[in-house]
Design a protein that fits this description.
By secondary structure, this protein is an all-alpha fold. It is built from 9 helices and no strands.
Length: 213
């Protein structure tokens, strides 16, 4: 039984995870806000909660996608086409709206680390866009006839969580410097937008090409 895709595919997946983790968004804004208002412990607690929420979503997506492969490879192919359209929409959104690190001013410090953890978990558990993203993103790296689809889906989901945790933990450690750098270099953040748009577009094209075969 193989738990990982081939090395080239897995390396491409790691690169995608790294780029996505570095792109500012609501999760990162929460981590930075908690860190700047309550210290690193609160930032890391919020990160732990958010990653726990992502893990729940990715495991749910993995189970659902594995069941879909077992039920019908044609339906799985149809899902890839829908996924390609969704990824194209994400690419357009990245160019239209851009990535931003919007920190709320005057936010109250959470009284406990548990509450910061819960805040992080709820921001992802209650966000249907996350499971929609993984349902369209993970099929990039698993073929319809793969007998080891289930463990590979789990491994890919766990990899995403690990990469996101490491990147954001590092940013939390240098939170004040990171926030200052983001605000001082808007062109660099715009570069992330173009990179994300190119990444999502490339994956969408890959899905459509695979669906035509």
């Amino acid at each position: 039984m193989s738990f990982l895709p081939t090395t080239p595919i897995y390396l491409a997946y790691l690169a995608a995870c790294l780029l996505l983790a570095l792109t500012p968004g609501p999760d990162m804004a929460l981590f930075m806000q908690k860190t700047l208002s309550g210290g690193r412990a609160h930032g890391l607690a919020a990160l732990g909660g958010a990653m726990a929420g992502v893990l729940v979503h990715t495991f749910a997506a993995a189970l659902g996608l594995s069941a879909l492969i077992a039920a019908s490879s044609r339906l799985y192919g149809g899902l890839k086409i829908v996924g390609a359209l969704y990824l194209l929409w994400l690419a357009i959104s990245a160019l239209r709206h851009g990535s931003a690190l919007k920190l709320a001013s005057g936010a109250a410090v959470e009284t406990t680390l548990g509450r910061s953890f819960l805040t992080g978990a709820l921001i992802n558990l209650t966000n249907p866009k996350i499971i929609l993203f993984f349902v369209t993103f993970l099929p990039q790296f698993i073929e319809a006839g793969d007998a080891d689809a289930t463990p590979k889906f789990f491994a890919l989901g766990a990899t995403f969580v690990c990469v996101g945790s490491l990147v954001n933990a590092a940013l939390i450690v240098v939170a004040s410097r990171f926030v200052a750098s983001v605000r001082a270099h808007p062109k660099a953040m715009r570069g992330f937008d173009y990179a994300v748009a190119a990444l999502m577009s490339g994956f969408a094209a890959r899905l459509l090409i695979a669906a035509d075969r």
